[in-house]
Design brief:
The structure is a homodimer of 440-residue chains. Chain A has 440 residues and is of the alpha/beta class. Chain A is built from 13 helices and eleven strands. The longest helix of chain A has 32 residues. The N and C termini of chain A lie far apart (92 Å).
Chain lengths: 440, 440
C-alpha cells in the first residue's frame, strides 16, 4: 500500500513539474514573439553585375517589402499596366482596387493612409502680366508651404498646362488627375487656388466629418442654393476654387464628367450656353468649372450630390471682403485669451503647433471664437493677381493691399515660432522681436 | 498513516493547483500589458473650465508625453527661460545641453533625429526690381519644395529681414539662428541661396561623410585654396551660398563670429578692409560673408577649420556656367542606361523616388556617371535674378535663359512621376505625355 502511494505521489510530482515547465515555456515564448524582427527574404531577382550595394542607410532592392522598408516589390501594380494613362483624356477604371492593391504591396504607407493629404496648387507657366503678380504668387505659395509644414502635409505646385486646351480655372483638373496617380498613398487631394490664403495656421480640416458618412468631395457653399430654387440658380452657390477630393474611383468619374464641360470637350460651347441659361448671375458665355460643378450636383444628386459635402460650418474657404475686416478683432481676441492663460503664451517648437492648437480651442470657444468664425482660408476671388484684371468693384489697389494684409496676418502666426512679428500688417518689410511671455 | 498520506496528497494537489493558477495569471498579465494603453494622468495643471475635450483624433494636453504622442510636457525646457532670445545679437550658451534635454522630453522626435534636415532659403521682402525676378524666384522655390517633398525634408522660406541691418547675403544668418531654435528636432540646417537649383532630384547628401568624423559645417570649395597660399588667397576658395550647418553650440558660436563681420557689427568697415587686403580677387570694399568664412577657417583652423568639411567630391553646389552644358549629355546617358535596364523604366509613386535612386546608382557608376559629375546643385552665382544686376560677363539674357533651362531640366525629373515632360528645355509652356516604358 505504501509503495503504490509513493508511486502516485511521484507521478503527481512529475505531472506537476511538467505542467509548470510547460507554462513557463509558454510564458517565455509569448514574451519573445513580441521582440523578434520579421525576417527579410532575398530572391535572385537582382542581377549580380548590378547588385545595389548596401549603403550606410541600408536601403536595398528587396523583392519583399517589409512593413518599415521603402521599396517597390517586383509584383505588378497598376503602374505596370501599359494601358495606364496620366492624361485626363483617358478615363480611369477600377481605381479603388488598383489603389488598394498598391497599398497592400507597400505596407510602409498603410499606417496613416486614411488621413493622408496632398495639397495641390499652381499658376500659369509664364510670367504674370501684372507687375506685382509673381511677387504675390511667391508669397501665396510660401503661405501654403508654411501651412503644410506645420501640419505635415505634402504640397505640389503645378506650373504647366498638362492639357494644352485646359488653362485658367480648368488647368487644375489634369493636375488633380495626375496627382492621384502619382500619389496612391494619399487619401485626399486638396486643391487650393493660388489666390487663397491660409489665415488660420492652427486650424485643421475636420476630416472625421467626411469619413463617417463617406463623402468624397468637400466644397464650401450653401446646400439650399445648390439643390433648391430650380428656377433661380446662382453660379456662386458654392466655390470650386478650394476643394478636397478623395483619391478614389468616384472622384475619377467626377473629374471626368466635370472636365467634359471644359475647353477640351467637343461640347464646350454647348455647356457654356446651358450654364448661361441655368444660372441667372453668370455673366460670360464660356463654360466655367464652378457652374459646371453646381450643375452636376443638382442634376445628378444621387450620383454626385449625395457624396459631396457642401460645407459652411467653418471657412473652408471664405470670401476675402468679409474676412479681412475680422483680422484685427481676432488678433485682439487671441491676445486676451493668451493674457488670461499662461499655457498658451508658452514658446515652443514649430513642430508642436498642432498640440497648442488643441490646447487653445476650448479657450477660443469659451471666448466666443467658434470654429465657424475662424478665418481659416481667405480667398481673394475676383482679384486675378496674375493678369491683374480684377473685378472692377474692387477699386484701385484694394486687392493687392488686402492680400498683403492677409499674408502678413498669416505669416505673423508662422514667424512667432521663429521669435518675430510684423507689428504693422501693412508693412511687409519691418519685423520686430517678440518678447518672452508675449502678450502678458 | 493512511489519513496523513491523504493529507499530504491533498496538500500537494492544492500547492500544485495554486502554482498553476499563478503561472496562468502571470501569462495573462504579460499578454495584456502589451495591449493596454498607457494611462493618461491628468494633473490639476489644467483648469476644469477649460479642460480640452477629447477630439476624434485623441490628442489631449497630457503632462507625460508618451513615445508616440505629440505633446509638450509641463517640465521646463529652454523655451521657458526668459533669457532665451531668437535674435542673432544675443549669443546662445549651452545649446547642446538644451537641445538634448528637449529631445529627451519629446521622445516622439528622437527617432531619426540624427539625420533630420531643415532646408532654409529665401529672398527680399519687397518685389524684385528685375521684371522677371519674382517669376524666377517662384520657380526656384517650387524647385526646392519638389526636392524636399521627394526626400521628406521640411523647408522654410524666409522673406523678412530679421535684423534690419542684415540684408543681402547677410540676411541668412539671423534666419539660420532663429530656425535652429524653432526646430530643435532637426540635426542639420541646410541653407541654400534662392539662385541655386536642385538639378539632380534623386541625389542625396551623403550625411555619413560628416557624421563619422563629426564635422559641423559643410561647404563646397577647395581646401588647398582655403588653407594654403597665404599670400594669394582667393575669395572664391569656397562658396558660402549653400551650406549645411549642424544644430549645435559650435554652430551657434560660428554664426556669432561670422555675423561679427557683418553690417550689424561695429567692426563692419574694418573687416571690409581686412578682406580687401587678404583676398586679391575681392573687388568691393564691403565685408562679405564668403570672404568672412574663408578668413575664419584659415585664421582659426583649430576652432573652425577642423570641424568644417570643404567638400568637392560632388557638386554640393556647382558653378552654373560649367554645369548647364552637361545637361544634354546627362539626359542622353540616363536614357541609355534606362534602355538597357527595364527596372529603371518602371513607373512608380513619387514617394518611391529614393528607392529608384538607389537602384539606379550602380548603373550610373558603371556607365561612367560618377557621383562627382552628377549635377546635384546648379548655382547661378553672379546672376542676381531679383535686382537684375548680373555680372556683366554674362551677356544679355544669358542668366535667365540658362536658369530657365536648369529649372526645366530639374522639373522634368519631377513631372515624370506625374506622367509628363517638357520636350524642349527652352520652352517652359509646352509639356507632352510620357509614353509607357519610356525610353524603350
Amino acid at each position: 500500500m505504501a509503495k503504490s502511494t509513493t508511486c502516485v505521489c511521484l507521478a503527481n510530482t512529475f505531472l506537476f513539474l511538467s505542467l509548470v515547465l510547460f507554462l513557463l515555456l509558454l510564458h517565455l515564448w509569448t514574451l519573445s514573439s513580441f521582440y523578434s524582427p520579421i525576417p527579410i527574404i532575398h530572391s535572385p531577382f537582382t542581377k549580380a553585375k548590378s547588385e545595389p550595394q548596401l549603403e550606410p542607410d541600408g536601403v536595398v532592392g528587396s523583392p519583399n517589402c517589409a512593413a518599415h522598408e521603402l521599396c517597390d516589390p517586383p509584383e505588378k501594380s497598376f503602374y505596370d499596366n501599359p494601358g495606364l494613362s496620366y492624361s485626363i483624356e483617358k478615363p480611369m477604371k477600377n481605381w479603388d482596387e488598383k489603389r488598394s492593391d498598391w497599398l497592400k504591396q507597400h505596407p510602409s504607407f498603410a499606417a496613416g493612409a486614411r488621413d493622408r493629404i496632398l495639397v495641390v496648387t499652381g499658376s500659369q507657366p509664364l510670367p504674370c502680366e501684372n507687375p506685382i503678380g509673381d511677387h504675390l504668387l511667391l508669397r501665396l505659395f510660401k503661405n501654403k508651404v508654411d501651412y503644410c509644414r506645420i501640419h505635415g502635409y505634402d504640397i505640389f505646385y503645378n506650373n504647366a498646362y498638362l492639357h494644352p486646351k485646359m488653362d485658367s480655372y480648368w488647368a487644375k483638373f489634369p493636375v488633380v488627375r495626375a496627382a492621384m496617380l502619382a500619389h496612391p498613398e494619399v487619401e485626399w487631394i486638396w486643391w487650393i487656388d493660388s489666390d487663397a490664403v491660409f489665415t488660420d495656421m492652427e486650424f485643421k480640416v475636420p476630416l472625421h466629418r467626411y469619413n463617417n458618412i463617406d463623402h468624397n468631395l468637400v466644397v464650401y457653399g450653401w446646400p439650399n442654393l445648390v439643390y433648391e430654387d430650380k428656377g433661380n440658380k446662382s453660379s456662386t452657390s458654392l466655390n470650386a476654387g478650394v476643394f478636397m477630393i478623395r483619391n478614389c474611383q468616384w472622384s475619377m468619374d467626377l473629374v471626368n464628367d466635370w472636365a467634359e464641360m471644359g475647353p477640351n470637350s467637343p461640347n464646350y460651347k454647348k455647356w457654356g450656353q446651358i450654364q448661361l441659361s441655368t444660372f441667372k448671375d453668370k455673366t460670360y458665355p464660356q463654360s466655367d468649372d464652378q457652374s459646371a460643378l453646381i450643375y452636376l450636383l443638382f442634376k445628378k444628386k444621387d450620383k454626385w450630390g449625395n457624396k459631396t459635402y457642401v460645407e459652411n460650418e467653418y471657412y473652408f474657404q471664405g470670401y476675402w471682403v468679409e474676412i479681412v475686416k475680422t483680422y484685427d478683432n481676432i488678433s485682439e481676441g487671441y491676445k486676451e485669451v493668451e493674457i488670461w492663460e499662461p499655457k498658451l503664451r508658452r514658446r515652443h517648437a514649430e513642430k508642436l503647433s498642432e498640440y497648442y492648437a488643441k490646447l487653445r480651442e476650448p479657450y477660443l470657444e469659451d471666448a466666443g471664437y467658434k470654429k465657424r468664425w475662424r478665418p481659416f482660408v481667405t480667398h481673394f476671388t475676383g482679384c486675378q493677381q496674375c493678369n491683374g484684371n480684377h473685378n472692377p468693384m474692387y477699386v484701385g489697389d484694394t486687392c493687392w493691399i488686402e492680400m498683403q494684409k492677409a499674408l502678413n496676418f498669416a505669416d505673423n502666426q508662422v514667424l512667432r515660432n521663429y521669435g518675430f512679428v510684423r507689428p504693422d500688417l501693412m508693412n511687409s518689410s519691418f519685423v520686430s522681436p517678440l518678447p518672452f511671455d508675449y502678450p502678458a
